[in-house]
Amino acid sequence: MKRLANVVELAASYDLAIIGAGPAGMSAAVTAAEAGLSVLVLDENGAPGGQIYRGITGTPVKRREILGAEFWRGEEIVAGFERCEASYAPHATAWSLAPDGSKGFEIGVSLGGAVRHIHASEVIAATGAHERPFPIPGWTLPGVMTAGAAQIALKANALVPDGRVVIAGCGPLLFLVTAQLLAAGANIVAVLDTAEPGNWRRALPHLPGFLRSPYLMKGLRLLLKARRANFISRVTALRAEAGDDGCLARVAHTRGSTETTLACDTLLLHQGVVPNINLANAVGCEQDWDDGQLSFVPRIDDWMQTSIPGLSIPGDGGGIRGAEAAALGGTLAALGAAARLGRLSQDERNQRAAPVRAEFERLSAGRAFLDALYRPPKAFRVPAEAETIVCRCEEVTAGEIREVVAGGVTGPNQLKVFLRCGMGPCQGRQCGLTVTELMADARGVSAEAIGSYHLRPPFKPVTLGELASLPSNDAAVKAVVR
Q1: List of domains in the chain
Q2: For the whole model, what pTM was predicted?
């Protein structure tokens, strides 16, 4: 693997550019390089692994039982990636992507304090997932963070929250983080489970697929570990409260008709993960509302290719299936790209893909059961309290959004004009789903009818200084003069 540190080291063109070095991106790179493609992997992190295997090449966590066997399985995939013939640019940001008029794409890359445009015949966007917004009163207080953020701090820096910790929400990651933090010595005073008891009835039709998947034993092991904490189920309301210093001091939770307050120093929130669709949205990929995952998902085919020819989205960015399925999806995407570029015949592609696809489908089979079992309640997706902040970047509240909807605003993009929702640094990652579902609730229509933000490049922050470093050409000069 060839490491690149600045934009001048980038070639002008590659057969395949891969955005993201998580399980899907790394597997895609290995498969594509083996097929003889010139491959560039762009990753914002400083080392491969993505979110799930973050820090695996240099984590200071030496007791392997803390992070668990599932985390350390990433060593094999990272080792394979580091042996392959791909070019790898850590600390690189892909901030624009568009068809370039010929057969392929123009990608804006920020690396080493400068930017440059490069060409790629095919692109695999392995952008992964992010945590679903969890808008409760007080969720912007210092001391409140997501469970995923706490997990990143543990993996990358062996940091454990100090003092009294409360973990709240639902979903498999909630149990995983609880188990990891307990093993690392965190003082977890309570785990507040917000899953609705009725979810079991919705999940039962999907039980056969779940039993065929490997999730069952993994889940049972996690539940047993997490249950060592003070586990409080059937929580129907949450509120984070500040102390005299303006930081988190207490968490109020409601169970039945009783509200209880717990003193705490850190509150970790989590209610599932959703595909990171910002790049797909900005490029113009067709997407659908997935009512099982309660999110928008890019429309992809059997080779992970989107509605834009040559652009593929494997892994959790194309639908939540988990790390192992993501790696297999990356392999399928690379095989599809290699066949479209003429490096593999269709017969060769299909033959190599057959066992991969069979395992991919086996691993994916249990996902519908988990989506139904841990479906987050509407009360935690659509805030009822008017003062609850929805858009953290612009500090827009649920009450303000309902007010402009009552005044005739019909969708998220019109909402931007009135309230600037989704126009901050996160570009809607932290508020997009909440805005969609809140507007749907206020108007009495479906989330699909409301739609999502329409994004434009740059879809990641880039400085004016970096843009000024772009080499000028005749087309750029004419564009400015006009």
Answers
A1: 2-130+274-344 (3.50.50.60), 133-269 (3.50.50.60), 382-450 (1.10.10.1100)
A2: 0.94
**pLDDT over 50 (residue 184):** yes
CA distance linking residue 323 with residue 26, whole number of Å: 12
* φ, ψ at 191 (rounded to 5°): -115, 115
The number of C-alpha atoms within 13 Å of 375 and in the hemisphere containing its C-beta is 21
Q: Which residues of 132-163 are buried (b: 16+ CB within 10 A; e: fewer)?
A: bbbbbbbbebebbbbbbebbbebbbeeebbee
Dihedral through CA 435, CA 436, CA 439, CA 444, nearest 10? -150
Pairing type for strands 187-193 and 273-275 reads unpaired
285: tokens are 């990929």
pLDDT tens sequence across 256-300: 999 999 999 999 999 999 999 999 999 999 999 999 999 999 999
What are the two backbone dihedrals, phi and then psi, of residue 95, each rounded to the nearest 5 degrees? -105, -10
Angstrom distance (rounded) from CA 154 to CA 160: 6
Taking the CA of residue 328 as centre, how many other CA atoms within 13 Å lie in the half-sphere pointing to its CB? 19
Do residues 169 and 195 lie in contact, with contact meaning Cβ atoms separated by under 8 Å?
no
Q: Is 426 exposed, middle or buried (0-12, 13-18, 19+ CB in 10 A)?
A: middle
**What CA–CA distance (Å, rounded) separates 192 from 254?**
10
Q: Which of 151-160, 330-339, 463-472 has the lowest mean pLDDT?
A: 463-472
The strand pairing partners of 118, in sequence order, are 107
Query: What secondary structure, in 3-state letters, does the chain show?
Result: CEECCCHHHCCCEEEEEEECCCHHHHHHHHHHHHCCCCEEEECCCCCCCCCCCCCCCCCCCCCHHHHCHHHHCHHHHHHHHHHCCCEEECCCEEEEEEECCCCCEEEEEEECCEEEEEEEEEEEECCCEEECCCCCCCCCCCCEEEHHHHHHHHHHHCCCCCCEEEEEEECHHHHHHHHHHHHCCCEEEEEEECCCCCHHHHHHHHHHHHHHCCHHHHHHHHHHHHCCCCEECCEEEEEEEECCCCCEEEEEEEECCEEEEEECCEEEEEECEEECCHHHHHHCCCEEEECCCCEEEECCCCCCECCCCCEECCHHHHCCCCHHHHHHHHHHHHHHHHHHCCCCCHHHHHHHHHHHHHHHHHHHCCHHHHHHHCCCCHHHHCCCCCCCEEECCCCEEHHHHHHHHHCCCCCHHHHHHHHCCCCCCCCCCCCHHHHHHHHHHHHCCCHHHHCCCCCCCCCCCCCHHHHHCCCCCHHHHHHHHC
